[in-house]
Amino acid sequence: MNKISINNPYFITQLIEGNHNAYETLFHLYFEKLHYVAVSYIENTEDAKEIIQNIFLKVWKKKQILTPEMNLNAYLFKMVKNECLDYLKHTKVQLKYRKKLEIERAYLNEKALKNDPSQLLIESELQNKIEGLINQLPANCREVFIKSRIEGLKYAEIANELNISVKTVENQISKALRYLRHELQEYMGLFL
């Protein structure tokens, strides 16, 4: 059998008849070649190896569909291509399904947090605390901060409206933010 081509009708007939030596010869001659082709399609060595092993298993189990006239070489390479395409389609479906599950899980977690009474209580408490802290700011600082963060005015607009420099606006905002950050430290862990 050493000099027999795998496309030789005698060799294929031996496979059809279940000759283990013919099957082992086919395996040893083609495993690495088919594996190389599979890796070029899917880039995952272990999965490619599993695909090739499944192909040889199919050839053994469905040996009755082989015919002595067939081109076994072309048949094997076509099987690799088809199995790899099926693998890629399956992987794509899995990724899409996983992504969908992650989106649904994130949505449900967000919804659960929004509807969580303790979360609503914390948000309400935090809102009251922020309003109280803003009211404790010095009058000029409070006015600049409200115009910037609540009314949404730009620094230049605030400076123009209050007849102060943009630098003064920046300093007042920095002062307010430093104060709020310091006073709200206990809440920071909730939003990280």
UniProtKB/TrEMBL annotation:
The keyword Transcription regulation applies. Residues 27-90 form the RNA polymerase sigma-70 region domain. It comes from the Bacteria. One of its GO terms (biological process) is DNA-templated transcription initiation. It holds the Pfam family Sigma70_r2. Transmembrane segments: none annotated. Keywords: Sigma factor, Transcription, Transcription regulation. Residues 129-179 form the RNA polymerase sigma factor 70 region 4 type domain. Signal peptide: none annotated. One of its GO terms (molecular function) is sigma factor activity. Belongs to the sigma-70 factor family. ECF subfamily. NCBIfam families: Sig70_bacteroi1 (TIGR02985), sigma70-ECF (TIGR02937). This is RNA polymerase ECF-type sigma factor. It comes from Imtechella halotolerans K1.
